[in-house]
From TrEMBL, chain A:
This is Tripartite tricarboxylate transporter permease. Coiled coil: none annotated. InterPro entries: DUF112_TM (IPR002823). The keyword Phosphoprotein does not apply.
Length: 651, 372
């Protein structure tokens, strides 16, 4: 084994192969730095070019890309509060408050080192998996997978923020929206309103961007200052290293959990993120999670690099991709003539080792690259936000649209974005919402399948009992910890009760719609959404009543707008800008609308000179067209395009 | 990144279309000339996501098509996903012009809803012309504990309790095995919600489902090792179509009976009846001729012939034959008459067979397709 390991390293270290790896690293870095685009987009980008490469070079390039995308996507999470990809959402909860506090450098350096160590742990686990992956993965049946989903759901306990009731309802809202689309057991379409778009279910990347990024952008734009409140980067590069040394045990734990969960096919990468984050909140003492605790950054960043190593296990040895990017990785392998399966631990073990080495080396390369370039990129946080805002809006829209390439992505972004904005304002925690959403489908599918395969006695399986015990233990430990903060500002802003009571009707209306729709379906298609909706109505109606009529609703009452400085722009101002862009693109297509949006925003809202306005508009939209060209993408069409046949890129 | 992509995007779509096409008008009918495609960009629409089976298949073909197409045009793959392939195909049907610059790659999950009359379908195969057909196959296998080795043991298989099968959905490709169980008279509990055949195989390996099938390439790379270890027993292949359109043994598995053979040996009579007709139609659309490359029917003959010629040359290309294994398997893709015959068979279903199948879906899975 060691001989094979060494010979793979020798094979890999020829200059041209290292060059291909470096190319993969560079592309992964570029795609990672861009918000909302992750390894999936990067792999799709290089897929056309791997044909004709020798197998080891191609694998080095693909692996290098995947490894680095998970490191570099930290930038947008920490510096802008935009999830760098849907697999690094939880980083923003602590990373972004740190950047706002002027500790961007510390957060970045801690996250890069955590990413690197996580990536190396992932590579180690992958090499151990060569020996034991098969029996381990086969030991986890549908019943155990269901319990792992429950484990994920149990994190809501610590993610709920100051009002547990509101946290539960937020989670239920995620679960309910997650059941839209084809029912796993019967393929009936639920709440699709006859559209193809909804029949596939709501796309996660759009939802994540809407719920986290949009409210943040609107909030920042109002402040009018810079992202870093002190307009400084902070001299935290060394402090970040010290954080890593202090929290090495957390780092090791979360790396291991990340790669083990990543290796389980069918659970989905974004769940891992939240399980790991919840684990950190549960187990770490004196946490300031949600307010810029560096441990939140370390935990998530270590795990999401480690996860890529784990995710390769089912991909390589079973031919079963556990995520979107792994599906493309598998497609790439097929194109260069490698078939995944048992032979990769048999006669083609050399290729497996080449992948493991690539993973390790690329993680180190990527971390180096990130460190070298970060002083420059981190300067973003010291630029006046008015100049950055239109870029961020454009990138968020682009990231959303690239998900299913349907104009409906943009409308969904706006709708859920407004929901997120009010959730933020009225103190409804958003992490439980996302946890509920990502778990809805695996929970329903695996529960149904487990009952079909084992009957209800599945609950007596040893694996199920072990996971149940783990859940009980974690919930018990977590109950004694401080919960996650809703926002970095926790001062007691109670606001008026009436608007909050009205907003509390929104989840009730959604639950009622889901319940009503459930009555139209067969038992198997209706039982899961129906039960979620019914239980949630029981919880959410009293909350709304209490907000509306109780003399003192207590911790339910929260309004982040109380005492807001109206001179910095009202609550609605920047939402209207955003809605204007979406509406404009419904009329004249996205590209034209974006150009108008840039001109108007920079000139009117940011008060730039004409020269500056024109230059920034040209740079932004020129870049947009270039990326769309590479990705073979048409922009969302508007009314104009349906009437006149325009040439690309306006088409 | 820009220097990388410069190769593939030498001529950028419509912006550069102006001059090059002028000479085409003078071309002899039925004969493609290099000018027709010089400097042009062809869009190959794949209604499935990047990295999936159809996408990989198209990307595998890309360099060969570029090499053998008159005028060596730039070819880009555009993935338009949604509705399990229906969305992108609807868009192709609505937008593709008869200029030979937009082609579509279809697959089973695009053929099935069309055949079954899914109300979301806005396309009609009769409006297209195929330039290449791509077959595949599949193998059904069971766990050894069932003690069944072949059709002779069918009684034991029929009386086996707890037969389960992991399916991707009532109208997915897994309809073909579900109908096969029906024809064989097996009492199989079909458990839905599998995301991809790989998950179905995993359920088999875990012992959750004692009966499963895989398409040929996955069977060869993932299941044959299990067969060698004595953890799986193959029963039959689905078979494949010869050039005359008849069901014959799959040349990848010459020792396995094809399904009709197996069925006949198990039941003692030649297969017939509506269930058999439905199986045959769906087998052809799902395996025997799983993927097609098509153009709008109104496309001038010289352009259509240019594609046929390019695919014909591809199939004869030594490099293609050497490398096709992992992507296509040892199956012969066809052009011209055999492809046309396969196309006709894979995209038509007698009205009474369709009605029977819809009723069966309702009866068996309580699944309603909605009005056409």
């Amino acid at each position: 084994m060691f001989e094979a390991l060494l010979s793979a390293l020798v094979q890999l270290s020829s200059p041209d192969r290292l060059a291909y790896m470096a190319l993969g690293v560079a592309i992964g870095y570029a795609i990672g730095v861009l918000p909302a685009l992750g390894g999936l987009a990067g792999l799709s980008l290089v897929l056309p070019f791997i044909y004709g490469l020798d197998q080891v070079s191609a694998l080095a390039m693909l692996t290098g890309l995947v490894a680095v995308a998970a490191t570099a996507d930290t930038y947008s999470s920490i510096l802008m509060g935009i999830p760098g990809s849907s697999a690094s959402q939880a980083t923003i909860l602590d990373g972004f408050p740190m950047a706002r506090r002027g500790e961007a450098a510390r957060a970045l350096s801690a996250s890069f080192i955590a990413s690197m160590i996580g990536g190396l742990v992932g590579a180690v686990i992958l090499s151990c998996a060569v020996l034991v992956a098969r029996p381990l993965i086969l030991a986890l049946g549908t019943a155990e997978l269901f319990m792992l989903a429950v484990l994920g759901l149990s994190m809501v306990g610590v993610l709920a923020g100051r009002s547990f009731g509101k946290g539960l309802v937020a989670c239920g809202l995620g679960l309910a929206l997650g059941t839209i689309g084809s029912a796993p057991a019967t393929a009936e379409y639920r709440l699709d309103f006859g559209t193809l778009y909804l029949s596939d279910g709501l796309p996660l990347p759009v939802l994540v961007l809407a719920i986290f990024a949009l409210p943040e952008i609107v909030d920042l734009a109002r402040g009018g200052g810079t992202i870093s409140k002190t307009a400084e980067l902070g001299k935290g590069w060394i402090a970040g290293l010290r954080d890593i040394a202090r929290h090495w045990w957390l780092l090791l734990r979360t790396s291991t959990i990340g790669s083990l969960l990543g290796a389980i096919p069918g659970l989905g990468g974004s769940v891992t993120d939240w399980i790991v984050y919840g684990h950190a909140v549960q187990t770490e003492k004196n946490g300031q999670f949600g307010k810029g605790d560096v441990r939140g950054v370390i935990a998530v960043e270590a795990s999401n690099n480690a996860r890529e190593g784990g995710a390769l296990v089912p991909t390589l040895f079973f031919g079963i991709p556990s995520s979107g990017s792994m599906a493309v990785f598998l497609g790439g392998m097929t194109l260069i003539g490698i078939e995944a399966g048992p032979q990769l631990v048999g006669e083609r073990l050399d290729l497996t080792y080449a992948i493991i080495w690539s993973l390790a080396i690329a993680n180190v390369m990527g971390t180096g690259l990130c460190f070298v370039t970060s002083p420059l990129i981190a300067k973003l946080t010291t630029i006046r936000f008015g100049l950055i805002a239109p870029f961020m809006v454009m990138i968020v829209c682009f990231g959303a649209f690239n998900t299913s390439r349907d104009a409906a992505d943009l409308y969904l972004l706006l709708a859920v974005g407004v929901l997120g904005l009010f959730m933020r304002r009225f103190g409804w925690p958003r992490p439980p919402f996302v946890v509920g959403f990502v778990l809805a489908q695996p929970m329903e599918t695996y529960l149904y399948q487990a009952v079909q395969f084992y009957g209800w006695s599945f609950v007596e399986r040893p694996g199920v009992l072990i996971i149940a015990a783990m859940i009980a233990l974690f919930v018990f430990i977590g109950a004694r910890q401080r919960r996650l903060a809703d926002t970095d500002d926790e001062s007691d802003k109670r606001g008026h009760a009436r608007p909050q009571a009205i907003f509390a009707l929104v989840p009730i209306a959604i639950f009622a719609a889901v319940l009503l729709d459930a009555t139209k379906h067969s038992f198997l298609g209706a039982v899961f959404p129906g039960m979620v909706a019914a239980a949630m109505l029981v919880i959410s109606i009293p909350i709304a009543l209490k907000l509306a009529f109780a003399n003192d609703p207590g911790s339910l009452l929260h309004d982040g707008e109380e005492g807001a400085d109206e001179s910095q722009g009202g609550f609605w101002t920047y939402l209207f800008w955003f809605a204007g862009l979406i509406l404009g693109s419904a009329l004249v297509g996205f590209l034209l609308a974006s150009i108008v949006f840039f001109l108007a925003f920079l000139r009117v809202a940011a008060k730039c000179s004409w020269t500056k306005t024109l230059v920034l508009t040209a740079i932004a939209n020129g870049g947009l067209v270039a990326v769309a060209d590479i990705l073979v993408l048409d922009f969302p069409n508007g009314l104009l395009q349906s009437m006149i046949d325009l040439p690309w890129p306006l088409r | 990144m820009a220097d990388l992509t410069g190769v593939m995007h030498a001529g950028r779509r419509d912006l550069i279309r102006l001059g090059a096409g002028l000479g085409a008008a003078a071309a002899l009918p039925g004969v493609a000339r290099a000018q027709d495609f010089v400097g042009r960009t062809i869009e190959w629409i794949i209604p499935m996501s990047v990295g999936g089976g159809s996408d990989t298949w198209a990307r595998f073909h890309l360099p060969f098509l570029n090499r053998h197409m008159a005028g060596n045009p730039t070819i880009v793959i555009r993935n338009i996903t949604g509705g399990g392939g229906i969305n992108g195909t609807n868009q192709f049907a609505a937008r593709a012009r008869p200029d030979g610059l937009t082609i579509l790659g279809t697959t089973a999950s695009i053929q099935f809803p069309f055949l079954l009359g899914d109300p979301r379908v806005r396309y009609d195969y009769a409006n297209w012309v195929p330039v290449m057909a791509s077959p595949t196959g599949g193998v059904m296998y069971i766990r050894p504990e069932l003690g069944v080795r072949g059709p002779g043991d069918i009684a034991r298989l029929r009386s086996a309790s707890g037969l389960k099968f992991g399916s991707q959905g009532p109208t997915s490709l897994d309809m073909v095995p579900a109908l096969a169980f029906e024809l064989l008279g097996l009492d199989v509990q079909v458990v839905m919600g599998m995301q991809g055949r790989g998950q179905g195989r995993l359920a088999f390996e875990r012992g959750e489902t004692p009966i499963d099938y895989q398409t040929s390439s996955a069977y060869i790379s993932q299941v044959l090792p299990l067969v060698r270890e004595g953890k799986a027993v193959p029963l039959c292949s689905w078979g494949s179509l010869n050039d005359a359109g008849e069901l014959v043994r799959d040349s990848n598995f010459p020792d396995l009976p094809h399904f009709a053979e197996f069925l006949q040996a198990a039941t003692g009579r030649a297969p017939s009846g509506p269930a058999w007709e439905a199986w045959k139609a769906l087998f052809v659309a799902g395996f025997g001729a799983q993927k097609f490359v098509v153009l709008p029917k109104s496309t001038p003959a010289n352009l259509v012939n240019a594609y046929k010629e390019a695919f014909r040359k591809t199939i004869a290309d030594a490099e293609y034959r050497e490398k096709r294994g992992p992507v296509i398997g040892e199956y012969n893709e066809t052009v011209g008459e055999p492809a046309d015959r396969a196309y006709a068979a894979a995209t038509t279903m007698a009205p009474e067979v369709r009605q029977w199948t819809r009723d069966w879906l309702q009866r068996r899975f309580n699944h309603t397709l909605g009005r056409e």
